[in-house]
C-alpha cells in the first residue's frame, strides 16, 4: 500500500523521483553496513562456542574498513597465544 502511494506521488510530481532514489540508496547502504558490522570479528553471537573470537585473528588481518597509514601485511604478533 505504501509503495503504491509513493509511485502515485512520483507520477504526479516527477521531482520526487531522485529523492525516493537517494532515500532508498541511503537506507540500503546503511543496512549493508550494519550487516557488515554485525559479522565482524569483534562481535560474539554465540558465547558458548567461541567466547573470544578476536584472539584467533591473525595480526595481518585488516579489521578496519579503511586503513590509510597501516600496512597490515608487515605486522608481527606482539602478545602471547591464548
UniProtKB/TrEMBL annotation:
UniProt keyword annotations, A-Z: Membrane, Transmembrane, Transmembrane helix
Q: Which residues cross the membrane?
A: 16-35
List the Pfam families. B12D (PF06522)
What is the protein name stated in its UniProt record?
NDUFA4 mitochondrial complex associated like 2a
Q: Which organism is it from?
A: Amphiprion ocellaris (Clown anemonefish)
